[in-house]
């Protein structure tokens, strides 16, 4: 009976050893798949990080451009005011020339 028990234990050990090897083989295949997914995931994470960084830079540049456009609009308005003042001065000069000419007569 001892040999029957030891042979069935050996058979059970061999069978569980085969199952373990089969599971390890499946897990190794799954590990390769998981490793590929991790590599893909890390690359897409890098791509997402770079995209976010680029978007942030574009957003900052857009804000600076908007601020510069507002400053240029203000400068244009001031140049318009200065032009109006100069135009008034030119008109005033014409009036003064007429007065001087009238005084010389």
Automatic annotation (TrEMBL):
<dbReference type="InterPro" id="IPR032143">
    <property type="entry name" value="BORCS7"/>
</dbReference>
<dbReference type="GO" id="GO:0005765">
    <property type="term" value="C:lysosomal membrane"/>
</dbReference>
<keyword id="KW-0472">Membrane</keyword>
<protein>
    <recommendedName>
        <fullName>BLOC-1-related complex subunit 7</fullName>
    </recommendedName>
</protein>
<dbReference type="GO" id="GO:0099078">
    <property type="term" value="C:BORC complex"/>
</dbReference>
<comment type="similarity">
    <text>Belongs to the BORCS7 family.</text>
</comment>
<keyword id="KW-0458">Lysosome</keyword>
<dbReference type="Pfam" id="PF16088">
    <property type="entry name" value="BORCS7"/>
</dbReference>
């Amino acid at each position: 009976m001892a040999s029957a028990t030891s042979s069935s234990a050996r058979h059970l050990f061999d069978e569980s050893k085969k199952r373990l090897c089969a599971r390890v083989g499946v897990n190794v295949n799954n590990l390769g798949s998981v490793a590929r997914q991790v590599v893909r995931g890390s690359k897409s994470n890098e791509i997402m990080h770079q995209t976010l960084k680029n978007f942030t830079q574009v957003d900052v540049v857009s804000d600076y451009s908007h601020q510069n456009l507002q400053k240029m609009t203000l400068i244009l308005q001031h140049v318009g005011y200065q032009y109006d003042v100069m135009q008034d001065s030119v008109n005033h000069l014409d009036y003064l020339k007429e007065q001087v000419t009238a005084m010389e007569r």
